[in-house]
Amino acid sequence: MANLPDDATEALVLDVIDGDTITVKLEQAVHTVRYIGINAPERDEPWGPAATEANRNLVDGRVVFLQRDISETDEFDRLLRYVYLPDGTFVNGELVRRGMARARAYPPDTTRQATLTEMEQQARAAGRGLWQTMGGGDQPAGPDVRIVAVDKRAEVVDIANLGLGEEDLTGWTLVSEQGDQVCALSGTLAPGATLRIWALARDAHRGGYNCGFADPIWNNSQLDRATLYDEDGRLISTYP
Predict the structure, then answer these.
(1) Do 13 and 124 fall within a single domain?
(2) Under DSSP, is residue 223 helix (H, G, I), strand (E, B) or coil?
(3) What domain range is 192 assigned to?
(4) Same domain for 23 and 114?
(5) Do 124 and 75 share a domain, yes or no?
(6) Of 55, 140, 185, 187, which has the most beta carbons under 10 Å away?
(7) How many domains does the chain have?
(8) Do 31 and 115 reside in the same domain of the chain?
(9) Contact 116, 96 (CB under 8 A)
């Protein structure tokens, strides 16, 4: 295990609460851990579902290593920690680097703040996540793939590749913002092609792509935007 701090303590991630908070088993007790030095959007805010999913992909169900700075807990009795994967990946920083969280200092716990600030500058310069460059209308610049139709009652979303090149959808996610359900995509989408995405496992026989959910994910009584993110967590398209 490379590049781990000598004072880091091993823990097992039991649940991912949002983009900067997890639940872990540590020394036979269950604790909530708040990541030091960053602030991710809340689950009901723009980018909140994507930040939560990015955090989940990094740590859910995995052994991590926790490092304390100055404070033991915050006002909500959550452990305050820097979090590392066994390979040395600095999780707090990785979320900032991907544009899934902002670097934010919470004195006196600022030992790694310079590193986090540098990672935010990299994310801003690259237009990742929160810092993406917006194009015309409310659609961001990036791959020319768009959500072109949503039938919430049928639990169907259509996406189309409006560009000239093939798009690899590996690592992309389609999110129902109201319920925070995330469908992980894969495969490729040819130029000019449309892909029908079915939410429910019962519709697997219909062709297209199936998310495999047992229960409906689209809210038919309230506004429930469909959002499409690429493998770096950049918002690619929204509907409506």
Answers:
(1) yes
(2) coil
(3) 145-239
(4) yes
(5) yes
(6) 55
(7) 2
(8) yes
(9) yes
Nearest to 190 by CA among 145, 239, 231, 150: 145
CB 150 within 8 A of CB 156: yes
Q: How far apart are CA 171 and CA 197, in angstroms?
A: 15
Residue whose token pair is 């701090």: 5
Residues whose CB is less than 8 angstroms from the CB of residue 100 and which lie 6 or more positions away in sequence, other chains included? 19, 40, 47, 50, 51, 54, 55, 129, 130, 233
Mean local confidence (pLDDT), 205-222 = 89
Contact (Cβ atoms closer than 8 angstroms) between residue 1 and residue 87: yes
Residue indicated by tokens 């955090």: 55
Cα separation, 95 vs 97, in Å, equals: 5
Q: Are 137 and 123 in contact (CB under 8 A)?
A: no
Question: What's the pLDDT tens digit per position in 163-176?
Answer: 778 899 999 999 98
Written as six digits, the tokens of 19 are 């983009």
Residues in the chain: 240
Please give the structure tokens belonging to residue 31: 């604790």
**In terms of domains, do 114 and 63 share one?**
yes
pLDDT tens column, 130-185: 887 433 333 444 577 888 888 988 999 999 887 778 899 999 999 988 767 899 99
28 & 106 share domain: yes
- Which helix H or strand E contains 18, and what residues bound it? strand 9-18
Among all chains, which residue has been given the structure tokens 């959550």?
Answer: 78
What are the structure tokens assigned to 127, written together? 């237009």
CB 204 within 8 A of CB 216: no
Q: Is residue 235 part of a domain?
A: yes
Same domain, yes or no: 32 and 123: yes
Nearest-angstrom CA–CA distance, 74 and 35: 11
Tokens of 141: 């610049």
